What we know:
12% of the residues lie in helices and 27% in strands. The protein has four helices and nine strands, in the order ααββββββαββαβ. Strands 1, 2, 3, 4, 5, 6, 7, 8 and 9 form a nine-stranded antiparallel beta sheet that branches. 37% of the residues are buried.
Amino acid sequence: MVEAKTLQARNTVALARWLLGKHLVRRFPDGRIEARRIVETEAYDGERDLACHARVGRTARTDVMYAAGGVWYVYLCYGVHEMLNLVVGPRDWPAAVLIRGIEGAGGPGRVTRALAITRALNRAPACDDSAGLWLEDRGGTLPRSAVVASPRVGVDYAGPVWAAKRWRFTLRPGADRAAPGGRRRERSTRVAGRAG
DNA sequence: TACTCGATCGGA
DNA sequence: CCGATCGAGTAA
């Protein structure tokens, strides 16, 4: 399980990167449990971020983003796909991390379809199993080289400055396992530090 | 109340 | 490239 406190740091971009390799665990209505590693994320950080839903301030829809980190934000996109986000940051700082990919399902719409995630999970807790969808840190530190940063997808409406931010993080396939002969000492991702 | 436009995907 | 499909946000 992941500590809610960890998700309440005001460092959205670092958290998006940190979430790579963590496990998204789903308990389906029939009781079956499935865990999948997160392989792609995107950071959305505050009202200033013109790509973030909270750019319009606090509304019925964005209210959940102002909660303290550790709950889910699920919304319907294009009237077709449910999008799964993890709310992060301290209370009143509207930020979230979009779960764009898990092992075996790339693309945010496919993530939710694969795990039967709907808006019924909006505002549900992500750090305990009470809602049937939670995060687990099963260990295994990623070398920094396993992570690729790139611009966020589909946010041209945010204007050139915000659309260009490399706040999308992808886990390079295969690059997360320990190097053979294992003497390579690489800096691992850190949650603390400067974002932007 | 009318209109516009999506943090996408699958099929021409 | 295009259509699906619907709710949030905005203007009126």
